């Protein structure tokens, strides 16, 4: 379901409401589109490797488990993940946050990129991903030469100093209407990146690459969430959703939503199991005719009001993750 309390003007300023919600008495998050802290991960999933050694790291005092890439004593290696099932087509603004620690190689450099839709699959070329490949869209990029802690930001002369193997927190505020990305790093550096003409403002994934030798990446605490005033919640059991909306200087308002029928994401035929039958029925619904008893709400994985190939791919992934 979608809840949109919107914004309103007071004293010459626009205000966005604070929203708190519970489902069956438990606090729930209506903003988050994607999150991953790797604490429940037993192995790497969803990443494609170009020869890089990928694993789930453990033992860091402040981060617990995290995604870890070590290029070792080899030539250039890379890894990337595409999260294309996050549908941002109806989202006007959103924020990407993550923690990252990098060690640059002793002979060649390193690069980390937040990709936007429309780019080609990354390759071994590490020298400024977006600038050397006109099809490689990006929202944010940092690149450093060998043994350096000075990184160029977004292929420009802007630099930021990042101590080797040290965790930093990154925040990217994407305004799709203004086509800008406001970036900030916990070392105090920040700036604004205007998206070039033809570059998509929709997030697509993460990409990292390093030349030889001994480069490492640690990646953790990823969260992508809406900042445009719309909120979503997917129900997987019957119950009560209570939403309280508060504007600055105003009285709060509370709305209650009763759910009498549970919809399991991907369970389009209602048998409480997500399997190949659900895939087949979703295909039939997309190309026609729609099967009898087809639950469109269960097939609309990204909650955008329509069922398409993005939802079909997401259902296939749900089966793979079981």
Present the secondary structure layout.
Elements: E1 2-3, E2 8-10, E3 13-15, E4 18-23, E5 26-28, E6 32-36, E7 48-50, E8 53-60, E9 64-70, E10 77-82, E11 93-103, E12 110-116, H1 129-132, E13 138-144, E14 150-153, E15 159-161, E16 168-175, E17 180-185, E18 190-194, E19 203-210, E20 216-226, E21 231-232, E22 239-246, E23 253-259, H2 276-287, H3 296-299, H4 309-321
Antiparallel strand pairs: 1-21, 2-3, 4-5, 4-22, 6-20, 7-10, 8-9, 9-20, 10-19, 11-16, 11-20, 12-13, 12-19, 13-14, 14-15, 16-17, 17-18, 22-23
Helix pairs in contact: 2-4
Keywords:
23 strands; single chain; 8-stranded antiparallel beta sheet; 10% helix; 322 residues; globular; mainly beta; Jelly Rolls
The largest β sheet comes out as:
8 strands, antiparallel
Assigned CATH class of the largest domain: Mainly Beta
The CATH H-level superfamily of the largest domain is Exo-inulinase, domain 1
Number of domains: 3
The count of helical stretches stands at 4
Helix content: 10-25%
What is the radius of gyration? 21 Å
Low-confidence stretches: 6-13, 124-135
Q: Compute the separation of the termini in Å.
A: 25 Å
The total count of strands amounts to 23
Structural class by helix and strand composition: mainly beta
Average residue-wise pLDDT: 83
Quaternary structure of the protein: single chain
Say what the CATH topology of the largest domain is: Jelly Rolls
Beta-strand residue fraction: 35-45%
Shape estimate = globular
Strand-and-helix sequence, N→C? EEEEEEEEEEEEHEEEEEEEEEEEHHH
CATH architecture of the largest domain: Sandwich
């Amino acid at each position: 379901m979608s809840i949109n309390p919107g914004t309103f003007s007071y004293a010459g300023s626009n205000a966005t409401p604070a929203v708190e919600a519970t489902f069956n008495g438990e606090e729930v998050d209506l903003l988050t589109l994607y999150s991953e802290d790797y604490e429940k991960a037993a192995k790497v999933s969803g990443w494609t490797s170009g020869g890089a050694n990928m694993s789930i790291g453990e033992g860091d005092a402040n981060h617990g488990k995290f995604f870890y890439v070590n290029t070792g004593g080899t030539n250039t290696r890379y890894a990337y993940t595409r999260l294309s099932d996050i549908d941002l087509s109806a989202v006007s603004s959103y924020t990407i946050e993550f923690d990252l620690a990098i060690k640059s190689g002793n002979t060649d450099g390193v690069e980390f990129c937040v990709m936007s839709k429309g780019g080609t699959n990354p390759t071994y070329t590490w020298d400024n991903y977006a600038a050397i490949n006109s099809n490689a869209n990006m929202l944010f990029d940092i690149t450093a030469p060998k043994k350096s802690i000075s990184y160029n930001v977004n292929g420009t002369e802007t630099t930021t100093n990042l101590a080797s193997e040290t965790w930093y927190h990154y925040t990217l505020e994407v305004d799709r209407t203004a086509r800008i990305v406001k970036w900030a790093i916990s070392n105090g550096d920040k700036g604004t990146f205007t998206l070039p003409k033809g570059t998509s403002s929709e997030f697509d994934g993460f990409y990292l690459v390093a030349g030889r030798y001994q480069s490492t990446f640690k990646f953790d605490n990823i969260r992508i969430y809406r900042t445009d005033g719309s909120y979503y919640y997917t129900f997987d059991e019957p119950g009560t959703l209570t939403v309280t909306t508060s504007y600055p200087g105003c009285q709060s308002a509370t709305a209650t939503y009763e759910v009498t029928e549970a919809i399991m994401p991907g369970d389009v035929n209602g048998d409480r199991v997500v399997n190949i039958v659900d895939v087949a029925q979703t295909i039939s619904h997309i190309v026609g005719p729609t099967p009898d008893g087809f639950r469109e709400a269960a097939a609309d994985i990204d909650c955008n009001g329509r069922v398409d190939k993005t939802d079909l791919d997401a259902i296939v992934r749900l089966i793979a993750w079981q």
